[in-house]
């Protein structure tokens, strides 16, 4: 059994001993106690939301709410009311006044995830709110003062998002008072094994078990590229843990990284008798890939709601 915990460094709930993580801890330590807006740029599963929570927990706002909002999961026409709330009677169905995420997070931290998915006109409004320090509820005439620390995140390249017109440059500059690039797991080589052992240890502690990795499992962990980053690693360890009685095995990475069966002309093919759930997953992932990760386009092509798409992706 590896004794990983001894060499495993941490900052709050964040674990990792790589140089990249140590640099990150130092940045977080500096910025946590300020009210500066932080902009996190990193692939999906690298820990952006956990970093946002960690910043909140280490700030003077820790005893107030941390509110996480996924900008890509809220339909465009509802996002303004979701963020800023609405007054009674401001639209059909608005039977009473309702506060939005900005008010829920008052005194605390608001985490705007997938900021590049926010519609452009909302980005204009958000910028105005940040600059004026107040907003109006939908249908409201009285300004409401803002007291939130804002953390925004994206899994796209910020530069490209601006070039492609998904993120307004003026908003980007306003958000990026303190930009942090969150490194993918493949650049944190040292952390893969340490994190795997940490996750296994947590599962053991929770259930009072003493399962441990086989030697091959550790080799397999090292020789894989982790496109899904820490999330993929954590889920993989969890699955292997459940399957193991005593020795935790990890499948050969080749079997896992085979990818969906996409033919060159952009069609998918599966053998007759493929489990519906598997076919559905392949179709969703291939479509997402086709639309370069754009969830709105993917959901609309698949004829499902963005929320349903999110739920599926979460499962995967
Ligand atoms: N450095 C880390 N230490 C421990 N757990 C981590 C770390 N980074 C990510 N995780 C875990 O991996 C999963 C994905 O992290 P999350 O913050 O949701 O990523 P992102 O928002 O970048 O997609 C979560 O379960 C999170 O707790
Ligand atoms: Mg996330």
Task: Report what the structure shows.
Helix content is 44%, strand content 11%. It has 14 helices and 11 strands. The chain has helices at residues 19-32, 48-57, 79-84, 101-104, 120-132, 158-163, 169-175, 189-207, 215-222, 229-243, 253-256, 276-290, 295-302, 306-315, and strands at 10-11, 14-15, 38-41, 66-70, 109-113, 134-135, 144-145, 149-154, 178-181, 212-213, 247-248. The strands form 4 sheets. The protein has a 5-stranded parallel beta sheet with strand order 4-5-8-3-9. Strands 1-2 form a two-stranded antiparallel sheet. Helix 1 packs across helix 2. The protein is globular and about 65 Å long. The two termini are 29 Å apart. The site of magnesium ion has 3 residues, from helix 2.
**Element order, helices and strands?**
EEHEHEHHEHEEEHHEHEHHEHHHH
The fraction of residues in strands falls at 5-15%
Strand order of the largest sheet: 4-5-8-3-9
How far is the N terminus from the C terminus? Answer: 29 Å
Helix content: 40-55%
Number of strands: 11
In angstroms, what is the radius of gyration?
A: 22 Å
| Bound compounds | adenosine-5'-diphosphate, magnesium ion
Low-confidence stretches: none
User: What's the main sheet like?
Assistant: 5 strands, parallel
Task: Give the integer mean of the pLDDT values.
Answer: 90
User: What's the overall geometry?
Assistant: globular
Contiguous helical run count: 14
Label the structural class. Answer: alpha/beta
């Amino acid at each position: 059994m590896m004794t990983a915990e001894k060499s495993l460094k941490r900052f709050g709930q964040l674990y990792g001993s790589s140089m990249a993580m140590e640099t990150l801890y130092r940045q977080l330590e500096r910025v946590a106690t300020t009210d500066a807006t932080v902009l996190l740029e990193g692939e999906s599963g690298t820990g952006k939301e956990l970093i946002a929570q960690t910043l909140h927990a280490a700030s003077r706002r820790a005893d107030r709410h941390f509110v996480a909002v996924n900008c890509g999961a809220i339909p465009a026409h509802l996002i303004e009311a979701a963020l800023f709330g609405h007054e009674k009677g401001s639209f059909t169905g608005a039977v009473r006044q309702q506060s939005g995420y900005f008010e829920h997070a008052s005194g605390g931290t608001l985490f705007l995830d997938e900021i590049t998915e926010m519609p452009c006109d909302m980005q204009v409004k958000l910028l105005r709110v940040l600059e004026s320090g107040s907003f109006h509820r939908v249908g409201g005439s009285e300004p409401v003062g803002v007291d939130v620390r804002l953390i925004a995140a994206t899994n796209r390249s910020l530069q490209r998002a601006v070039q492609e017109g998904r993120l307004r440059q003026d908003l980007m500059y306003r958000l990026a008072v303190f930009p942090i690039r969150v490194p993918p797991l493949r650049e944190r080589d040292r952390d893969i094994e340490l994190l795997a052992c940490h996750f296994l240890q947590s599962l053991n502690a929770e259930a009072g078990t003493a399962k441990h990795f086989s030697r091959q499992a550790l080799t397999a962990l090292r020789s894989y590229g982790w496109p899904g980053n820490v999330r993929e690693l954590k889920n993989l360890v969890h699955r292997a843990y459940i399957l193991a009685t005593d020795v935790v095995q990890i499948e050969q990475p080749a079997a896992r990284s085979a990818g969906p069966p996409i033919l060159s002309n952009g069609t998918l093919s599966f053998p007759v008798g493929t489990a519906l759930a598997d076919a559905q997953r392949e179709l969703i992932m291939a479509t997402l890939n086709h639309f370069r990760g754009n969830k709105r386009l993917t959901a609309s092509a698949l004829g499902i709601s963005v929320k349903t798409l999110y739920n599926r992706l979460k499962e995967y």
